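Hi both,

Apologies for the delay on this - the queue was longer than expected. I finally got the fe (ii) ion-bound model through. Below you'll find the protein sequence and the ligand SMILES exactly as submitted, and right after that the structure tokens for the full complex including the ligand.
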Amino acid sequence: MITKEQVEQFDTQGAVTIDTPLTSDQLAAARRVFDELLPQADPSSGELRNRVGQTGNIFEQELLDILQSPFLEDVAKKVLRAEAVTFFQTAIIKAYPEPGAEFRFSEHTDIQYCSSDFESIPRRMVCSHFLWLNDVNEKRAPMMHRPGSHLLIARHRQNDPELAKAPPAVKGTSKEHLPDLPYSEPVPVTARAGQVSVLTTSMVHAGSTNVDKEPRYAFVITFHPRNFYIGLPESQAQAKIKYDRELQEHLRSDRRHLIDTTWQG
Ligand SMILES: [Fe+2]
């Protein structure tokens, strides 16, 4: 389980990487599913892609077993200070090697909060689990992040009467459109296979180029406190509503409480 110190690290840095009880067999099975679902060559055009992902529409048993793991739910409850949590979104991403390429990354936030959202109980926010199915080193497309940047942005919003009124909603904002604040330097999130990085995408972060020789596998599972609603862009909202309904039928009967079918976007 996540320790008090690890939750504090999440609070102050915006990300913490912790061990999980997943076995190497479970990780290998999940990687095989990624390989099948996320081929490098685009099935229609044959074009080779560097980063292949899928949001929702995940029903493979090997991945469902991980998705509905009580461990991830319990960690989300602790971090969100919530008695109950439900799924927000789920994605799988495979970053293929680009040996010889220049290491690049493009920074952004996916959502922004006010300080009061972090301080509330439960927190009015989404927490993202980036589960790494193999080792992530500094060359293997690590997520880049600026520790503590989520708090700088939250204070900035809290102090602006207009922004303080706006409810949090998912909306990508590139770094050049972020307020000019004294952010720390970007650092890579590295991890061992089977660890999970628990993080908020309200910190300044970026996907990066895989300049290593092996692919990088990320299984992203996000939670929010039950009965707290975060908006999504319309196209994603409709896809989420559809996926949630179908997913509920695929979960074990004792895990179906993880789906909130009252979410309206
Ligand atoms: Fe992002």
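Main takeaway for now: The radius of gyration is 18 Å.

I'll put the files on the shared drive as well.

H.
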